[in-house]
Batch of 2 targets.
Target 1
Amino acid sequence: MTISLSHYLILAAVLFGIGVVGVLTRRNILIILMSIELMLNSANLTLVAFSFYLQDIGGMMFVLFTMTVAAAEVGVGLAIVVTIFRNKATIDVGKLNLLKW
Amino acid sequence: MMQTFMFIILTVITLFSALMVVTRKNPIASILYLVLVFFCFSGYYIMLGAQFLAAVQIIVYAGAIMVLFLFVVMMLNLRDPEAVEGKPLPWQTMGLFIGIGVGIVLLSYLAGSPGPGIPSLEPTKETYALGSAKFMGKSLFTDYVLPFEIAGVLLLAAVIGAVALAKKDRA
């Protein structure tokens, strides 16, 4: 058995599913952010796999920019978490209902 | 053969750690398992000929981003992380099924790939050179120079935004 593109795609799909479950079932806002990172990374894996099997560097360049965006997202996201914790003294998303009517 | 073996080992570690990330109660344990996942991703990138991305993955994700997470968890000083998760709310059980559904839909879609038009690749030495720093750099400063500049502006905006958000005394 040699490793083909399908193997990477299936692996990425499973990891993305785990990430979605994490976002939807956890209440700790930090773990939700981490699950989003997991989903981003599984999308990156599909891009790199396609890039390699099509021998086109476009996918790898895209991953490089995705990583930049992920770094920016985490920086701003964690700043928001710190602000929320300072104001509400909780990181439980079940208790954050300021925008709920 | 060697590659198949590596892929299976990496996959077992990745899936196990990913499950641990979303199930652990203690955020520190989750973070450490996520670091393990990122190291495995770096292994996949090397197998896919993306050596430069493998290095960037370790430096940016396992190095910078996860340390940032760890730093925030330590800073927030959660006395009892277990207490954050109380009785599961109705939307949490629903979320589990939605998440599994999304996974199944993606799987059924991707398992059919590669479709027509994607040739099966016989890896040679040249195919693995695609993601080397040489080719990536050449591409980055010719075809992708505008996105590169925009990424720099984005990072600047993120830095300013993070400082403005986390600053204590707001004007």
Note: The first helix of chain B runs from residue 2 to 23.
Target 2
Amino acid sequence: MFQQLSEYIDGELDHVNCAEIEKHANNCLACFTCLATLKRTVAICKNIKDQPVPQEFSRKLKEIIQNIPKTTSP
Amino acid sequence: MTAEKNPNHKKIKDKDFELIQAINSGQTDKFHDLVKRYEQKLYNFSLRMCRDHSDAEDMIQETFLNVFRYLKDFRYETKFKNWLYKVAASTCIKKRRKSKFAPDKELSLDEFLPGNETEVPDHVPEWALMPLDKLLNHELSSTINQEILSLPKKYRLVIVLRDIEGFSTAETAQILSLSPSNVKVRLHRARLYLRDKLKGYFENDLR
């Protein structure tokens, strides 16, 4: 059951296994807590903000792209 | 990096389709438009894959150079974004530099079992219950980014693609040339690892 918690969170588990996890978690604080903290971990990851690209690097990348020999491809 | 040769495949016409067609028909100056479109996504992906900025910048440059080199072989069998990440992930895997932040080890499921925790909880911790927007701040983002970097690369790639970049299990499997079940196993262990790190972060700082 423990190994299926991520699939449960992602909605990738069938109804029977979902019901089993819910039934167990509702009667076991250790597993309920594990599930709650795991869900929260996933939510934190999904909400991490991206950093902007430093302008200097963006300029450097543009220069590199402009200098690719046009014979290379496409 | 060449796409599979299947003459009967249906072309996926995503938002990049026309731009790629233009580049491949000779308007190579438009390649920079494609770079601009994905520069930020790839920059952040690379930062999460490489420990230092210089390695991350190298990874982005190599990725875009490879994309330019192989773009004519792109056969629209997946979204361009998925193919781009396949090129980026492959570039990243090749850069297998030894790093103390990226030990190449297996994560065992047993070490994360709830029963193995030193203390059985008597309540659900506050950080799992409070509104997410109250929890998210610069320090937490920085902590989670550091902890992602401390994951072994094979787990890191999976959790970044699934939970940060938002690819599905099937897409992640395709990008990394893994089976979906392998993606699920790695993702679960990576999440449990990060959960442990976050637990330590919140408990140690008495948040």
Note: The first helix of chain A runs from residue 5 to 9.
